[in-house]
Amino acid sequence: MKLQTLLPTRAPAMADLVLGPMLGKPVMAYYYVTYKCNARCVFCNIPDGPMDVLPVSQYSSKEQTLEHLDILKELGVRLIDFTGGEPLLRKDMGFLLGEAKKRGFRTQMTTNCTLYPKRAKELQGLIDILCFSLCSPGPEPHNTLRRDNSYDSVIESMEIARRLGEPYQIIFVLTNDNADLLPGMIDLCREKQAILKIQPEWEYFGNDGVDIKNLQKARDVAREKNVYVNWGELRVFEAGGNRAEKPACRAGNAVLAISPDGYLLYPCYHKIAQRIKFDRNIISFFKTDRWKQMQDKAGKFKFCDDCSNLCYIHPSFYYQFDRNFVLSALADIRYMKERHRIERQRRKSLAVEALAAG
Ligand code: SF4
Ligand code: SF4
Prior knowledge:
By secondary structure, the protein is an alpha/beta fold. It has one domain (25-357): Aldolase class I (TIM Barrel). It has helices spanning 13-23, 62-75, 93-102, 116-123, 139-146, 151-164, 182-191, 212-220, 231-238, 281-285, 289-297, 310-316, 323-356; strands at residues 28-32, 79-83, 106-111, 129-133, 168-174, 195-200, 227-228, 255-258, 263-267, 272-277. Helix 4 runs parallel beside helix 6 (151-164) and helix 9 (231-238) packs across helix 13 (323-356). The longest helix has 34 residues, at 323-356. The radius of gyration is 19 Å and the shape is globular. Residues 1-9 have low confidence and may be disordered. The structure holds iron/sulfur cluster (2 copies).
């Protein structure tokens, strides 16, 4: 029996990421289902960025998407992060997640929660890592930072997901406007039985990014209950990001990015040097020296210097054994333990509530 088949279906992403280098394959894919979004977060340019010119009419058809899932399976991908934009703007999200689960993928999705309460039932059991975005313990500055008035929906979504037994966690983008609110965020996440994943805001489209001095606030709470901070990420961030001459980012090796219209975005969504049609030809292309050279070049482009895009850098840590590998592994092991503890706590409280309800 293969090692990966022994892992529980809902084991967190780290198990997949660590298997990548062992299997010599990219094991994670960012599948961009849309670039559209009903929010306008100050730290994101996806819905107004250069790619949003893509008309929805050019998005992959249902048949093409199913073929993409089959190809990803053949390539050895284990975890698909269905991302955007706001994934729940896609009416067929439940279908896509269900097809991914049928094929044995582990699934991840991040939502701004504006549409989750209405769709929760339909998505139940289809997402292994369900991330809700929340920027403050109270409505402000969350609603201002996200420009979508979604605070109440996030709070409601946590309660719905808890009752449905869904594996939810909070993604907290650490900015200069909310760094002082970390203690309140931790209290809220404990009350709502959620993990708080602290993700520093990085610059990539002219936004400032969080000041290095505010990272210390994340470091200070990294060992607290309900908190997940990746020490490898902090280290890269504090050092000013990726270095082209000695890259921390191994996008292409660790992670594949697929666009809504069915192209592999190389090396990553944020800096596209090449778009390659994601059809069956890619399976043989991945065996060529040309692709190996391209994999080797990822993280080494001029534009990769100073990049702190942790979505691609975090999975990359497991592709070379160095200090980042160790720091990230320690943080991720801690995350897995916390996640199991919180899931046990949720199950217990649901059982007590069911008993009390008779
Ligand atoms: S909700 Fe997500 S995709 Fe939409 S603007 Fe905010 S960060 Fe970007
Ligand atoms: S370093 Fe940044 S720009 Fe370069 S491939 Fe990685 S994520 Fe993309």
